[in-house]
Task: structure prediction
Amino acid sequence: MSHMSRLPNIREGLLMFRRSGESGEPEFFLAHPGGPFWAKREDGAWTIPKGGVEAGEEILATALREFKEETGISPSGPYISLGSIRQRAGKVVHAWAWEGDADPASIVSNTMTTEWPRGSGRQITFPEVDRCAWFTTVSARGKINAAQGELLTRLEAVLDSGSGS
Result:
């Protein structure tokens, strides 16, 4: 399916979390974008796995498909709606959380092709996600796209209220 049928500037994503150790403190599974633009960027570069809605596709279905495409992991509910946030460049991200576990070393991402350097006419192909990792709340806040930090806050509020279990 061509990317032309996608809704512009809307992305759907999933935030996988697990509760660690005795404390049950949440840890968050984040993805680092592949490709040369992101290669040396760390703080503020990490993201929840996400992608664009195909025409006629349910938004949660998009989030599940994108998570699987970018990590090779099949998510399983229940899903906790985290609402939507707007990133600095204007993209709106709708997100859901789910409790799961995975070995970040085992992720397999789909690839994308883009012109690099821009304007060069040269096409390169690279994994959409080059790595994933688990982060504690404090470290996740330093790594995640700034606007997406609100998603961590919303999930923590749900978990603290006891309605996320």
In short: The beta strands are 10-20, 25-33, 50-52, 80-86, 92-99, 111-115, 123-127, 129-136. The helical segments are 59-71, 137-143, 149-161. DSSP finds three helices and eight strands in the chain. The longest helix spans residues 59-71.
